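I hope you will forgive my troubling you with a question about protein structure. The record follows directly beneath this note:
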Amino acid sequence: MNWLLHPVGKSFVLHLVLGTVLVVSVHFSPTPQLPESNNTAQPINAVVVDAAVINQQLQKIEQEKQQKLEADRRKKEEQQRRIREREEDVRRAEQAAAEARKRKQEEQKRAAAEAERKKREAAEKAKREKAERERKERERKEAERKKAEAEKKRKEAEQKAKEEAERKAQEALEKAEQERILEEQLKVEQAARNARRQRQVMSEIGKYTALIEQTIKRNWIVDPSMKGKSCRLNIRLASNGLVTQVTTLEGDANVCRSAHSAVLKSDTLPVSSDPEVFAEMKEINLTLKP
């Protein structure tokens, strides 16, 4: 039936359909009626071939043709796809076999290389171990020689050290005795100097304490009610005599307020230029009585 899909077959079928339609139409057309007695002419009814039917038949044939062609194309593509898949499977199998052979050859090469390496390493290890034994033997003999030599030197050094220690011990005893005598003399002299210095410092402290009290009292305003009363103050001084802080410690409240004002009014108080004396007086406690 493939000839029906050919253009010539298609044309033949078309003409055959048209002929059949015409024959059927003519055969079944109604017999023309004779005109009536009035002799009036009547139109002749003719059957016309329906073009829509023909077109529908042609479209159906064309659709069947296209469906056939599409089915053949898909079948051919499926066959080609299967062929390609089989070829791909064969190619992959051959590639896998080739890779397997290659891996096996590489493994054999690696195994041979590893065996050669181990053999070479074993030979080198044996050579190193022999050299190491020989080296240790040389070191052992050298160590014994050095040990004997060191023992000899040690005994000689011990004897010399003993003699030297005895000599130094005697010198140390003599030196220690001399240092003891000298230290005692220095202590006596230092004590005398300290005593003189202490007396001097205390004298200076007393002197400047009196000067500070005099300076405060010059600025102190008192009244008869303060008589017989007192106040104890703590005064902090800078190196130039500036009063930096005044703190009341104890005493009559009125006397303390008045004395506190007198200290602040003095602004600066007499201080010694001697650092040691100033260190003792930079913070002093004074008991002031009107």
The longest strand covers residues 243-251. Residues 1-5, 21-41 have pLDDT under 50 and may be disordered.
